[in-house]
Amino acid sequence: MPELLADRAGWSKGSIGTGQLVALLVGAALFWFFAAGSARLSRAMVRVVLVVLGVAAAGTAVVASWGPLLLVSVGPSVRRSRRCWS
Length: 86
Hints:
This protein is an all-alpha fold. The chain has five helices and no strands.
C-alpha cells in the first residue's frame, strides 16, 4: 500500500504513515463492531459480508488513484490479519 500511495497519489512518507495508521485504527474498530454484531447474523451472511468486503477492498486497491480511497482498501485487511491472530 505505501508504494501505491506514493506512486498513484504522490503522498510523502509521513502522510502515508499517518494515513495508514488512521485506516488501520478505523478498520480495527469497525471489525470490533462487526464481530459483536455478527452473533445476530447467520454464518452464511457473515461469510457473504466478509467475502464482499474482501473483494471490494481488492478491487478498490487495483483501480483507485485517490489517496483516501486507497486507504479504504486497507481497512478490511485488519479484519483478516486480526482473525489470523485470534
